[in-house]
Specification:
- There is one protein chain.
- This protein has 190 residues and is an alpha+beta fold.
- It has one domain: Sandwich (Immunoglobulin-like).
- It contains three helices and twelve strands; from the N terminus they run ααβββββββαβββββ.
- Strands 1, 2, 3, 4, 5, 7, 8, 10, 11 and 12 form a ten-stranded mixed β-sheet that branches. A two-stranded antiparallel sheet has the order 6-9.
- It comes from Fodinibius salipaludis.
- It holds the Pfam family Copper-bind.
- GO terms for molecular function: copper ion binding; electron transfer activity.
- InterPro entries: BlueCu_1, BlueCu_1_BS, Cu-binding_ET, Cu_oxidase_CS, Cupredoxin.
Length: 190
Amino acid sequence: MTRFAPYLFSLMLLFVAACGGGSDQQAEEQTADTQAQATEQADDVRTIEMVGIDRMKFVVEGEEEGIKTGEKMGDYVLLESITAEPGEELRIRLTTESTLPASAMAHNFVLLTMNADATAFANAASKARDNEYIPADMEDQIIAHTDLASGGETVEVTFTAPEETGEYEYICSFPGHYSGGMKGILNVEG
């Protein structure tokens, strides 16, 4: 039996090393992060990582090419506008940071057509609770939108920027958020 002892010891070390080093949850999170990064690199879609905060604002972590930011808001800066080329594919990934219940605080991203009346849309949206605050009779004024995200949730939408240059307003259609300043401009520039 002594001639197999070195092999058994090596086998035991290999087993212990393979079993240690982190939880299954950590491994799953790392795998999900790696897959998300690989997807972004593979599809070459520019992704804007937005955060919706309780102050009813779209914010980002900091400056980056193709966005204009404003005042500092806690750990973030206000997202004022996004610049895109005609026909450019964009991905908006929106995470809501809130401890309030979903009925009191949730966010979405709604990109409106160039000639849409954002105020009229937001007013109609406030009455469309059963449709996640997207007014069914005004869907022709939407280029793209996400679902609602409550605290800790992330939603995303991928879309192609319009071919026509100009300014396209985006808003959060949750009641009161547009009037509270949760809006911005997609500038399509040739």
